[in-house]
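Hi support team,

I'm filing this because I wasn't sure whether my run with D-xylulose finished correctly. The job status page said complete, but I'd like someone to confirm that the output block is well-formed before I use it downstream. Pasting the exact inputs I used:
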Amino acid sequence: MAAGADSCFLGFDFSTQQLKVVAVDGNLEVIHQNSVQFDSELPEFRTHGGVHIHEDKLTVTSPALMWVKALDVLLEKMRNTGFDFSRVKAISGSGQQHGSVFWRKGARRTLNQLDPQKHLHHQLQECFAVRDSPVWMDSSTSDQCQCLETAVGGAQRLADITGSRAYERFTGNQIAKIYHSKPKEFSETERISLISSFASSLFLGDYAPIDYSDGSGMNLMDIFEKQWSRVCLDAAAPQLAERLGDLTPSTAVLGCVSLYYTERYGFAESCNVVAFTGDNPGSLAGMRLQEGDLAVSLGTSDTVFLWIRGPRPSVEGHIFCNPVDCSAYMALICFKNGSFTRERIRDECAGGSWECFSSALRATPMGNNGHLGVYFDVMEITPHFAGVHRFNAEGQRVASFEHEMEIRALIEGQFLAKRVHAEKLGYKIIAGTRVLATGGASSNKDILQVLSDVFSAPVYIIDVTNSACLGCAYRAVHGLEAEAGASFTETLRNAPEPQLAVRPAPGAQEVYAPLMLRYAALEDQLLKDHQKSQHLL
Ligand code: ADP
Ligand code: XUL
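And here is everything the job wrote out:
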């Protein structure tokens, strides 16, 4: 790569509970990590888990000034460890997706004239027209979602334009709520940023544009034209285009850091700021997902990330512009029934032992002799129903399975669902497809074997603690090289590779191809039953 080993790149992540940073050197080795926990290190903001949950339990916000102060504290912590800011060639970063920051009229001038003698949070305290920013955990905008879908011509039509049907946490619906509930604050707002573009604005000392990838999480952007959608803007609030500013490619160099950082911390005047993006897009970069790859995170909830070219937006899941390749897309699907459901079945059928759970997977055949199960202990997001449903090889409902059969039915069901919904969004398994696994359950090789068999693809594991930060440090490196036409993959050719964990067993494709069709039909039927029962109530 072009940069010398003594150069350095920073990736920040303004996440829900903390602000984190990772520094990599010119060889892409991690050389520094640091963080500020909002609850414990900034107790004056009185957050729990980084947020305030309001009385209605639906409204969830965080003080914008807390994020500013966290940056003051983080940079000071770095300086106190002797971190040499003059080596930093470029920075980038990410933010929790969907959250919004409402800058008050005059804030741009303050950003332009930051005084290096003073903390940022002292200078920016009057800069927010709405002090408490709505964040992704907010689910108070059902009415606004309804209005947006109606204005556009329905949920599927909205997904066709913006990549997602209306979601309560998506920024357009949050802005519409502020416009109606706080008209005075809205009229005092000169600029609305996402948390990612707000963070890059702090570094630039000027308003930073919203990048295509994080911009896709707003229900406002046409993800194919990469422009604001006029019909969506008009449905949300008046004069929104000027308040949102222009969009930018996620790989763009936005400019150099403000002199504030040069004079206060010793950054080089030439240190570049590469567009910030959302934390999930940042993780895609950190996991080094490539074209055709699919990443499965098996944590508290399960998440599937896909790299796709010809997306087919649907009323399930989300399509975002790809953060590292402007001509591609990524899909994100969240499943609520992940580890807790696996733990319940482990406790009921394997005496609480992952080892016994694994033995059951080894002792049962691929395809479970036709026994299939759907295990949604809590209301699932995709598809939207709940309950435990078991079926025998003849497709008849049964009340229970033997323990070992139950364990395999759970894991196969979870992975069949992931494949079915990935394919619904346009994903295709081709020769060379890799499945990248991460999260707590990716330490279990027998679970990974089922994943590999169901997807008929090799599974690689990747340690992605701080994947969003690391991904953004990589994006900072790539930002400089992208201008000369280098792809993200070329830039990262020397970074540590994911490790091969398991390959599909012979015959897996023949077993799971027909099971996929059966599972998809079953899920459709269960969803219809659920919708019917809701209607009757
Ligand atoms: P989070 O989403 O909170 O970051 P993690 O990715 O750390 O969660 O995953 C934690 C989960 O990993 C635990 O809840 C546990 O169910 C699961 N886990 C840990 N070890 C194993 C194992 N050997 N087999 C299956 N699941 C495991
Ligand atoms: C994604 C989402 C969350 C946030 C917070 O749609 O809402 O993952 O990005 O991490």
